[in-house]
Structure to design on (377 residues):
């Protein structure tokens, strides 16, 4: 479910600065599990002192305050002026208005492109071009990728059931940095590899030929670390991901969900999605019956005050958290919950507000996700 917050791109001049080394990075065989990891649970081999780059969000909350909105970073394509872009762990690929790319007509065109964001109903259409991308934060740090595919959007269309969409030609307000995984085999379907800017830094190598930086990232409430290290992973509870069936890459994060304390919990998959503030939830009738009410639009949603417990890992054996539906005093509670009817499926899109409970790590080389509890803002 490729979900999306309201897309906007306001022009912003950012001060360029050198990439900063921070305590996060790669792997060394035989290294013990990071400090604080759950005993007996597999953990990635991460190298002490490995290079990492920290990019603070352009809209980071004040210290001690909760993250209420999708995080944004500076984005420059083909050496253009930096713009504000949503950092999105719920989709894959750089998506930007063609009009915001300097000398767009001179770039190598790979193929026609189209991506649909199901939460909003927007269909982005254009062409995939190959370009270098520079990402920047508020501390002057920046990173520039190898040439990667970028979807240059020339017009926007809407699905029949779109929630937030307006058809447009030559749009100017689109800028998204999609860095998710397990996105439905899109790489194979599109025939375009290396679309994840966070995994395409020159020091990272590839899945088949690792280099000095371990491919992965650590997302926090105030910024993101590119590259992984043993220091950065301290205190993480890790979950090993399965190989994706029938395609390359990793399967989604396993999860078990219980609404109102109903047992047994319903188990399926989770998506940590920084691109939205709304939670998208699919549960079986055994969990929902008698525990829903219509929202102001007449659409069923969990009854206000009902507790939803989310436990990650196979059988819900990993880190967990809970909140009451509709509780806007709890920073981990989503802005809203939308129930999605998909019979036979159990799924939760956590929304960005999970970051008010956990730091979130993705290890693309080893096939792990990690969750580290943080102090409640």
């Amino acid at each position: 479910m490729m979900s999306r917050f309201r897309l906007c791109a306001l022009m912003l001049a950012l001060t360029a600065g050198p990439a900063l080394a921070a305590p996060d990075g790669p792997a060394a065989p035989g290294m013990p599990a990071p400090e604080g990891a759950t005993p007996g649970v597999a953990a990635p081999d991460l190298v002490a002192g490995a290079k990492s780059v920290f990019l603070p969000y352009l809209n980071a909350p004040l210290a001690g305050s909760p993250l209420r909105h999708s995080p944004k970073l500076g984005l420059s394509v083909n050496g253009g002026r930096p713009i504000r872009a949503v950092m999105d762990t719920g989709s894959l690929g750089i998506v930007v208005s063609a009009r915001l790319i300097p000398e767009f007509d001179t770039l190598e065109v790979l193929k026609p492109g189209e991506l649909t964001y199901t939460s909003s109903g927007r269909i982005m259409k254009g062409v995939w071009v190959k370009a270098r991308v520079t990402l920047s934060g508020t501390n002057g740090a920046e990173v520039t990728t190898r040439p990667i595919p970028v979807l240059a959007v020339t017009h926007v269309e809407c699905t029949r059931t779109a929630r937030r969409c307006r058809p447009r030609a030559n749009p100017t307000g689109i800028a998204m940095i999609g860095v998710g995984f397990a996105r439905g085999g899109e790489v194979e379907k599109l025939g375009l590899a290396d679309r994840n800017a966070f995994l395409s830094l020159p020091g990272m190598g590839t899945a088949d030929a690792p280099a000095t930086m371990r491919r992965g990232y650590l997302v926090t409430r105030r910024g993101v670390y590119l590259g992984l290290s043993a220091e950065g992973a301290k205190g993480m509870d890790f979950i090993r991901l399965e190989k994706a069936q029938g395609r390359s890459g990793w399967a989604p994060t396993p999860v078990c969900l219980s609404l109102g304390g109903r047992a047994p919990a319903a188990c399926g998959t989770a998506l940590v999605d920084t691109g939205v503030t709304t939670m998208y939830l699919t549960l079986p009738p055994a969990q929902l019956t008698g525990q829903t009410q219509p929202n102001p639009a007449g659409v069923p949603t969990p009854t206000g005050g009902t507790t939803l417990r989310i436990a990650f890992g196979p059988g819900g054996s990993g880190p967990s958290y809970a909140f009451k539906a509709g509780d806007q005093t709890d920073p981990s509670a989503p802005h809203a919950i939308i129930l999605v009817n998909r019979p036979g499926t159990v799924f939760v899109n956590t929304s960005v507000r999970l970051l008010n409970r956990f730091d979130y790590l993705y290890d693309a080389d080893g096939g792990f996700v990690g969750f580290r509890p943080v102090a409640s803002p």
Observations:
- Residues 1-40 have pLDDT under 50 and may be disordered.
